[in-house]
Structures
1.
Amino acid sequence: MAFGLRWSGSGAFFATEIRVQLHEWLAILTGTLTPGALIIFVAILAADLLPVTLIGALVYSMFLIGQRVLNEAAYIRIDHKLNELYHASPLSPEGYFIGIAGGMLVAYLPPSLVVFAILELIHPLGLVATLTLAACLLAVWAVSSTIGYVVSTLFKDMKTIWPYSALLTNLFGILPPVFYRFSSVPVAWRSVVLVLPTSAAAVLVNGTAGLETVTPPEAILAAVSLAVEAVALFVFGIYWARRMARER
Amino acid sequence: MHRPVAEEALRAGDVRKVYRGRMGPQVEALRGVSLSIRRGERVALLGRNGAGKTTFLRIASTLLIPTSGTIHAFGFDVVEEPERVRPLIAVVPQEGKPFFHLTPREQVYCYLRARGISRETAKVRTEEALGKMGLQDVGDRLSVTLSGGQKQRAMVATVMATEAPLMFLDEPTIGLDPFARRAVWDMLRELTRKGSTVLLTTHYLDEAEALSERLYIVEEGRVLFEGTSESAKRQIGGTLRVSIENGGHQRDLFKSFGGIVEEGNALHVITGPERVHEIMDLALRNRLSATVGPVTLEEAFLTIVGRSIDAE
C-alpha cells in the first residue's frame, strides 16, 4: 500500500469506464475530427510540416483525453450521481479518479495509434524519439486528466463547464506550438512555451525526432517542467479525489 | 474486510450540519439528529422536502462531513474511519441514474466487481437482481434506451445486488409503477431477512407503512417522532378519521373532538371510536356529509409535522 494508496476494485472500475466509452464509439471517431482536419490541411498546404503536425495531433489528442475526463466526471457526478454510488463503496477515491482517466486513455488510444502509424510511414522515429514520444504523451495525459478531474468537481451544472473545457483545449492545444514549430515562437515567449505541458511535449518529441533544433537548456527546461507538472499534478489529483469523495 | 460486530447497524448522536454558502446565507440542515437502527431493521426517514433527510443519509453514508455530532456504522466512526465503513454500506442516491452507455446487466455486474465481489458471485447476483426487478428482458439494452422507471429499477438492482450489511436508499421507488414498487419492497424484505439493514427515505407514506418496522419523522433538521407507524397514528389522538366534506370552514365546530387535518375544503377529524357518533350527528345537523375510516400514516404525518409548523 505505497503512499497509503488503495486500489481495491480500481481495475474493475477502470474496465467499466473502458466499456462505457467503447459503447460511445461514435464519440471516439468524432474526437479525431479536429486533428484529422488539421492534418489534411497541412498535407495539402505545407506537406513538409506534416510530421510536426502529426506529432502535434498526438499531443493534442492526449490533451483532449483530459477534457473528456472533465466532461465524463462532471456528467456522471452532476447528471447521474454515480460518484455517490461509487464513493459510498469499497472502491477508493483514487481508484475512481484513475479509473475514469485510465478508461478514457485506453478508449481513445486507437485513433492515436493510427496517427502514429501514419507518422512512422512519413517520418520513422528512432527508438529514443519513440520512447520520448511515449513518455511525453503519458505526462500530458497525467496533466490533462488531473486538470479535467479537478475542474469537473468545481461546478454544479454541465452548461457552466462547457466553456471551461473549450478554453482549456484552446489554451493548451491550439495557442502554443503544438501543431506548429517552436522556432515560430518569438524568443521572448519561448521559456513560457517550454513550461506549458503540451508545447513542452511537442518540442521535446520534435527535437528528438530531428524535426527542429532545440538547444540543451531548452530541452532540459521542457523535460523538467513536464516531468514536475505531471508528477505534481497527478499526486494532487489523488489528493483532490480523496478530498472530494466527501463534501464539506 | 472487517466483519460488522456491533449490535447496532447505525447510531447517530446529535448530528448537526450547517451549509455555509459562499454567496448566500448559511443553512442549518440538521439541528441535532439522534437515532439508532438495529441490525436487520428496515427504517424509514420521513419528512417534507428540505427537512434534512438526504443530508442525514449522505452523512451516514460517508459522503458528507457533519458540522458536529457522532455517527457510527457497526461501531465504526463514519467521519473518522470512512474506509472501514464503505465496504459495509451501499447507497441508492436520490435521482441517481445508471451509466447510460452500459446495459443494466453490465451496470450491475461491473458495480459488483468494483466492490471486489468475485466474477462468479457477481454473475449470479446480477441475474438474480435483474430477475427480481423485472429487467431480464431489457438486460442487454443500453440504459439510455430504457424508460425512466426501468432506469430507476436498474439503479435499485445495482445496489440491492451488493447485499451490503447496511443500505441507504434515498427515494428508491420514485417514478416506479405500483408493481415495480412492490418488487422493490419484496427485495428489501428479503435482504433484511438475510441480515441486511435498510434506511430509506420516501414520500410515499403507504410505502413507509408497508415496509418499515420503525420510522423517524424529521422536520427542519430535527427528529419530531420516532416509533412504529401504529404509534405515530396513536400519537395524533385517535385511530379513526371522520372526513367531513366541505367542512373546511367549520374547523371551530369540530376541533373539540380531536385532531384536525384540513385538506382542501375537506376537514378530517382524528378521533376515537367513542366519539364518532357525536361527530356524525353534528355533521348531519349542519347538513355536511361525513365518512368514517381508519387513520392513515399520511394523516399522522400531516398532524405531527403540522403541529411543529404551527408551533414555529
2.
Amino acid sequence: MADAEGLIYLGNLDDVAKKALEFLNQSEFMKKTLSWGVDFSLWPVHLMTSCCGAEFAAAASPRFDLERLGFLPFGGPRQTNLIVVEGTTTIKMARVVKRVYEQMPNPKWVIAMGACAMDGGIFFNSYNTIVAREYLPVDAYVPGCPPRPEALARAVLLIQEKIKREKDKLLGVKNEH
Amino acid sequence: MNIKDELSKISTNVVIEEKKANYKIVVDDLSKLIDIANSLKNLGFDHVVSVTGIDYPDKIEVVWHVSSYSVDNLKGINLALSVAVKKPEPIKQSDPQGNIYIKRPPVTVPSLVSVWPSGIFNEREAFEMFGIIFEGHPDLRYLMLPEDFYETWPMRKDFTYQRAKVFIE
Amino acid sequence: MNEKVYNIDDLQNINVDGEKYIILQIGPSHPGSGHMRIKVWLDGDIIVKVDPDIGFVHRTSEWLSERREWIKAVPIVERIMLPDTVHANLAYVLTVEKLLGIEPPPRAQYLRSLVAEINRITSHLYGIGIFGIFLGSSTVYMWAFGDREPFIDLMEMLTGARITTSYIIPGGVRWDLPNGFKERAETVLQYMERRLKDYEDIWVKNPVVQARTINVGTLKKEDAIALGVVGPNLRASGVYYDTRKHQPYAAYSNIDFEVPTMKNGDSYDRLLIRVEEIKQSIRMIRQILKDIPEGKIVADQIYNQLNPVMKKNYEEKKRVMFPAFMIHMRPPAGEAAAKVEAGRGEIFFYIKSTGDKYPYRFRWVTPSFRNLPYFTHVAVGHRLADLPTIYGSIDYFPPEADR
C-alpha cells in the first residue's frame, strides 16, 4: 500500500476511529475505571435545607472526615453530582431544591437524610411540610433523628455500590439542555 | 418603688400573680391604648418581647409583652398588655359555577410601633397568622408564609386544610 | 382593605426608585446565606436597603403543639433550636412547672445548670466556626467543629444521645451522674483551656480579621435598647443585662460568675465576647462539680406515682424512664410565662391552659427572631463585602427564627 512518495493510506480515518471508540467503550476495563473515578469524587451541592444540616456540617469536620471518600461540598450546582436533602422541606424551600436539581448535569444521585425527609418525621400532618420523594427521584434513605455522621458515610458507600452495579449506563448519558 | 402602686396609677384593671410571674393590664377601651403605652414607656419599660393573639369563639385578644433593659427594679418583670376585639361574622360568597366560599374578615387594632420600634417584625407575624391589621404600621406585609396561604389566617381555631396537590415546578 | 398589601411584586418598588438601584438576591442556595434569602438594593457598591425574606424553614411548631398532648412538645421544641437543645427544653419545662406548682429538688437544679453550661460552650463554638467560614477561613471551621466533639462525648456519657437529649422533664431530670464523670470532665476542661490560647493566636489577634471587623456594623447602646436585640450582641454594645442574674432559675443564684460587657459594639467586640463567655462557663462547670449536693433527682409528687418496678429501677440504676402518666398530664387552668438565657440570647415562653389535654395557646419567641433588626438597620451604608461579616458576627440561625 505504499505510494511512490512514502505515504501510507489506511482508508477512511473517521470510520476507523469510530469503530475503535465503540470497541473501547464496551470493554470491561473502561467501565471499571470510569465507575471507580465517579465513586471517589461525589461532590454534593452546598444547600442546607433544615436542622439535619448541623450533622452534615459535623460529618465534614476532622473527627468523621468524609472527605477521605472524595465527598467535598461545593458552592455552585454546575460542577456537582450529588444532592443531599437533609431534614424537613417546606413548600417554599421545595421549589428552590427542585430548581437546583434541574441545574445539575447528568448523571446525578439523591440522598434523603433524616426521618423528616423519609416520611414526615415528627412534623407530620403539618400544613407547610412535604416529603422528599414527591418531587425528586431518591436513591438512598438514611433514617435517624438526627442520624449520626457515620450513618451518612454508610449512605455514601451504598451509592458507590449502586454505581458499580449499574456501570453499563454511565457512558452515553445525554443532557437535555 | 412599689410596682403595684405605680401600675394602679396608670390603669384600674391590673392583675398581679407573683408566683406564676403574671403581671397583666387589661385595657377596655381601644382609644386609650396608645396613652397607656406612653405612660408605661415613661415608667421605664423600653422594649417589646412578643406580640401575639389568642382566638376565642367570639373575639380575638391581642397581647403585647414588654420588659425593661435600663431600670434595675423592672428588669425581672414581664408585663402583658391585652386588648380584646370582637370578630365580625364570616361572609359567604358564591361563584358563577355554584361553589360557595366562606371568607373570614380581619380585625383592626392600633399599632404600637410609634411607641416601641422593636415590635416591627412581631406585628407582621401576628398579622399573617391571625388576621389582625395594625393601623399605622409602616410596612405591613407577609413575612413567612408563601402565596399559597394568602388570607387563610392559619392559627385561628377554625382553620382546616386538605392537601390536594402541591404544585412544585 | 388595601389589596396592595399582598402583592409580592410590589416589593420591588417600595419607597425606592426602581431604576436607579440594582436589586441583588442572595438566595438560599449560596454558601454565604444560610436557609434564607436576603434582598439587597445597591448603588454601585454601597448598600441602600436590605430586606430579609425568611420563612424557608417554617415548620409550624406552635400549630402542631396546640393539637398534641403536653409532653409531646418537648421533642418538637428541641429540634427547632438544634445547636442549643438543652435551653429550649429547660424553658418549656420551667413554664409547665409554674402551671403545675412543682419544685424540683436541689440536686436536680445543679444537674440542670451543668448540662446548660456544657451546651453553651458547644453553641459558641458552632458560632465561631460559621463566622470563620463566612470570612473565608476554613481552618477555624475545622478547629471549632473538632473541639465540639469532646463536649458532645460528655453529653453522651451522661444521657445516651449526642445532641437531642430530652433530659429535663417536669419535676426533675432523667439520669444521674455515672462513675468517672468528674475525672473525664476535668480532662476535657483542661484541654479546652489549652486550645483557647491557640484560638487567640490564630483568630483573635490576626491582623486580617481585625482589619475586616473593627468599626464594621457598629450599634450604639441607645439603639440596641430601642431595637430590642438580645444575647451576647446586646452585651457587646454596652448594656448589662443577663437573665441568669436578673430572673434566676435552676442553681444560678448559688454560683459565682461574671457577665462581661464591651464598649464599642462593632463586629470585633461580638467576636471577643464569645471567647470570654466560654472562659466563664468553664469556671462555672468546675464550681458545680465541686458543690453538687446529694439527694433525689425527681420531685416527690412524681416519685409517689411511679409503680414498684420503676421504683426498683430507680434505686438500682439511678434513672427514670418516661412514666406513662405524663401522657395524661393536665395542668390546671391559668397562664404562665418564663425566660431562659440560651447561647444566642433569651428564649421567652407564654402558655395558656384551660385544663384540657391540649394547650390552648402555645407561644414562644426565639433569640434569632429578635435579632432581625440587624439586617434592616445596621447594614445600611456599608459595602457589599461587609454583609457576610455582619451576618456571621450576630450568630443568626434561620431554623430557629422561623420556628
